[in-house]
């Protein structure tokens, strides 16, 4: 059938406040042109992130009622732990309140001044936690992963030759090798099982632990089944286990592919690392059987992990993104191809060539989408990745706008409305202004920095 139908019924609804364009122009100006600073009530369709913004199922809400809030030894933890180990065969599962807390604990152990940590592409909080420890985050994605127009089926893959050379040249300063699945900063692009196994083998060759950032593991497994030779007849659950069997550890934001509104975990096989991680957890998050989450959160995640590997859901999820990409491509809007799993990524640098990369074309497009149609997206480009620890700034590899779809939250008509908003933005895109940052924090500036408009074509300046 041509029609994409949601594989669920709607049981509860939440009203959307319908703002006018005039209202939105004032609201975004008052927010210093940072979409993170908007109140969510002032957003029509919120595609800022798919993290913690999805809709929970009836079964998850029922599981919440079973949550046991004992400080230590809650049965809710053991149900959560069993659900994780059913998919990811790690020895130790350490809950945290979200993924960045797992990263902070991990890099308090593995980070530090002078250390260098390779990944296909580090996302913002991973990079921030690495840099906060004094270490350097290094990206080694394949060349196709930096080309929005490439149709390589696994653009999230690590460049194996560059990884081997990097480890040979920096052996003493590299504490681990990481992989992010799917590769969020590179357009939500998947990593093949073959590449995961090859990276794991190289890490073992150099005696380095291999760690997976598994936030969107189920979506990555779907792409493996659909695109990788020899995987087409396999079940999603089996592919997921194969992905994690080659890893020594993982970090996870359960706000993504576990259908959670909050939560995460750090999973490890090494006993000594697990002991050190639990000591930090107790000091910063909570006891090891709750780790900053309520028992009801643990129950919701345990149920969510059972639901995320449903093939009917994953087919709908991936097809919805592909539909939007196809429609935008037909309009002449440059998008990252092939479609990723959790979001549509628009190549703002290509669509707005009159705006210098240091005047942030991604931010310009994100603001325009909000003003024109009330769509809140997220810049993934020079604002997010252009500033270096030394204080210098250079254009990022790409200037993208990410439109991340919360899981089970919006319908087909919302997708069609999004496409209509792009049609309207296309009429005015050549006159969109660039932006200048007027204030920024030392790390992860995109969350809280402030902007002002500059004339089209101008750089950021001093």
Could you explain how this protein is built, in words?
The protein has 462 residues and is an alpha/beta fold. The chain folds into two domains: 21-50 and 310-454, Aspartate Aminotransferase, domain 1 (Alpha-Beta Complex); 58-308, Aspartate Aminotransferase, domain 2, CATH 3.40.640.10. 39% of the residues lie in helices and 13% in strands. It has helices at 21-30, 58-64, 75-87, 99-110, 124-132, 160-169, 193-205, 217-227, 236-245, 271-284, 295-308, 311-330, 348-351, 361-373, 382-385, 412-428; strands at residues 45-46, 92-96, 116-119, 136-139, 177-180, 210-213, 249-253, 264-268, 343-347, 375-376, 378-380, 400-404, 434-439, 450-454. Helix 6 (160-169) packs parallel to helix 7 (193-205).
Strand content is: 5-15%
Integer tally of domains:
2
**What general form does the structure show?**
globular
Second CATH tier, the architecture of the largest domain: 3-Layer(aba) Sandwich
Low-confidence stretches: 457-462
CATH class of the largest domain: Alpha Beta
User: Which class do the helix and strand fractions yield?
Assistant: alpha/beta
For the largest sheet, list the strands in their spatial order: 2-8-7-6-5
Number of helices: 16
Radius of gyration, rounded? 21 Å
> Going by CATH, what is the homologous superfamily of the largest domain?
Type I PLP-dependent aspartate aminotransferase-like (Major domain)
CATH topology of the largest domain: Aspartate Aminotransferase, domain 2
The overall average pLDDT, rounded, is: 94
Order of helices and strands: HEHHEHEHEHEHEHHEEHHHEHHEEHEHEE
